[in-house]
Amino acid sequence: MSNELNQPLISVIMPCYNREGYISEAIESILDQTYTNFEFIILDNCSTDNTYEIVKEYAKKDKRIIALQNEKNKGFVYSHNKLLSLAKGKYIALMHDDDISLPKRLEKQVRYMEDNPDITVLGTLIESFPVKWMDWVIPANAELMSLLLQFHNHMAQPTNMIRAEFVKNNNIKFLEDYYYYYAFDYKFYMQILECGGKITNLDEVLLLYRFDNHSCSSKPETQKKQNLSVRTIQIENLQQFFNEEELEHIFKGINSYSFHRDSIKRKELYEVFSRMQERDANSIFSEKTYEEAIKLYVGQKTTMHIFFTINDSYTQHLCVLIASILKNSTTLDDFHFYVLHDGCLSEFSKNDIQNLRNIKEFDIDFVEVNDDRVYDCEQSSNPEMFHTSKEVYFRYILPNINENIDRLLYLDVDCIVEDSLNKFYNSDFKGKYVCVMDDGNYNSYKYYKKAFGVEHPFNAGVLLINAKKWREDSIVDNLFFNTKIFTLSKKIMYQYQDVLNHAFKDKCIKLNPKFNVQHCTLTNTTNMTSYNDHDLHFAKIKPTIIHYTGICKPWNERGVYNPLWKRYWHYIKYTPYSFLLESKYKELFAKSLVNLYGAADRTKRHLSYRLGEVLLKTRSLSSAFSLLFRLIKAIKAYKSDKIAYNAMIKIYPDLKLTKLENYSDYQESLKVKKQLTYKLGELLIKHPFTFLFRVSKVYKEWKKEKTNEFK
């Protein structure tokens, strides 16, 4: 930068406590800044390790460092306020004792603050390390940030650069009140907004934020206290717009996580922003700011072109799907539906579909497919695909149905939609042919890796298609050609999905799994997808599109093994098939209660668990003498039960129990298997003669697992 004499002084302030392992990195990251005109005030809060000794050594080495120590431990909020009062700079830059500022942080922040004198606090984006954690920091202009801060703290405190004059003139400091203590930075921002200040973030990562199992913020007790402080501030912010009942709904639903995450239901967020705008009598936030928030997080006025392929036997399911789309839409969402069929779709079916306009108006075209190439495609001999027909190949020709549209969405009719599709539909193709989601099926995962070298295959039941690019590059012709070649080469296993995965292996965009939550997504215990566990978790609890893949359809008996089977029946009441709620649904519901929730109990009837129970009850000398007899008794009881079960299913084969993986409480059965009871019994079965020599190791491993689980 220019001559140092012409540069404003920055006061970098950093409280510290017991960070001997990290503080050197934090200090050196400031000393290595490209902007050099700063004082670096470090206040130790009576560390019990060598933290302060390290700080003093650095102070000897660099005169910009001012090393101080509290007389006694007075807490981190007190330390922050003391540092604020000591700062002499035009700008005050905050820093944590275990984070790392990137070299150009101060240079870029001070330049922005000089160019934008109306900004009071400037943060930056962050990158967490060594553990990748949920990012709550967003880039937003000052007006939008003031609105979003009413709901969440979207700032990372150690990235903040503060205009010192504003804070001092308005007598703003970090509050030490109990209710704000663990979110003192969030309350600090609200005080600044109340005094007319402006807050924003640079759209650039300029700080590495340390997050690991040793971080204070990762400890459950700290998180509870922090949540209480945050909730207190949120209630203060929002009670002028919402009543108590509405606030409860907001906090339980959309306000659990930052809006930019895929854990938020867009329709609910739209309703909250709209209601807030209606009640903003004093125009605290401008109409433009509300519109910007809605566009950023919910979407924009869009006509969505959505395609389906059916025959008469699937009319009911298409009606349910369209009803779910319409019921979860917002006023931003308009629809043009295209129903592709082979010419045998009855007028009754068409009327049933068009009657859904009583939910919301839409345009619809019924398109008879006459392309011979579709009907020339051969069916797969794979038994997993027995329920499919040649209509599955209709999706190849979708971009040619309406050549005036640049993008389109294809949905299998065994789907339902649980949220507005606006943001999903308007996803950025980034020059690729299609936006897709991973297929979590274990068999297809192995098959595609071996057959096509595809590490993470996608499921072709939900496709957001770049129609313009397909037409430009003659993709439709290529798909039919490859289908013929694959058939002749006897490569076809999953039909159209094989061809599409081969064609778009490196030419697709993978979107969040919430847009195609399949049966395997809900029941798999091993993550075989390209998604992280966090995204999969929220996809399961807040899906946008539920896809009833495989043979477990919610309208048949096997479907009740899908944890989300009832959602299909929730939407059928809005269709001409609502009468089935009084018959078919009740029948399925009754059957679901018979054995749907028995996975944990079944696991406890395993021989491993029974033997483990006997072993753990052996706690006295007298019980040790009878151990062998009690073990033999448990084995005999197990064998007797097994004989009785086998005899029963010979007479009543319908009573044969399904796989544990199909139960809704399957996860509970896995927890049973992790219990010491099960592990000891399993060890005895596998190693009866060396059991005594191995039992100590098993116990230690179990203890370690429990400790990690607690953390």
What's a concise summary of this model?
The protein has 711 residues and is of the alpha/beta class.
What characteristics describe this protein?
alpha/beta, 7-stranded mixed sheet, Spore Coat Polysaccharide Biosynthesis Protein SpsA, Chain A, 44% helix, 31 helices, globular, 711 residues
Lay out the secondary structure:
Layout: E1 10-16, H1 23-31, E2 38-44, H2 51-61, E3 65-69, H3 76-86, E4 91-94, E5 100-101, H4 105-115, E6 121-130, H5 142-148, E7 161-163, H6 164-169, H7 184-194, E8 199-211, H8 220-238, H9 244-252, H10 266-279, H11 287-297, E9 302-309, H12 315-327, E10 333-341, H13 347-354, E11 363-368, H14 372-376, H15 398-401, E12 408-411, E13 415-417, H16 422-425, E14 434-438, H17 442-452, E15 458-465, H18 467-472, H19 475-488, H20 496-503, E16 508-510, E17 517-518, H21 519-523, H22 533-541, E18 545-547, H23 565-572, H24 584-595, H25 599-604, H26 607-616, H27 621-625, H28 627-651, H29 666-673, H30 676-686, H31 691-710
Parallel strand pairs: 1-2, 1-4, 2-3, 6-8, 9-10, 9-12, 10-11, 14-16, 17-18
Antiparallel strand pairs: 4-7, 5-8, 6-7, 12-15, 13-18, 14-15
Organism: Campylobacter avium LMG 24591
Domain Glycosyltransferase 2-like: 11-133
Protein name: Putative two-domain glycosyltransferase (Family 2,8 domains)
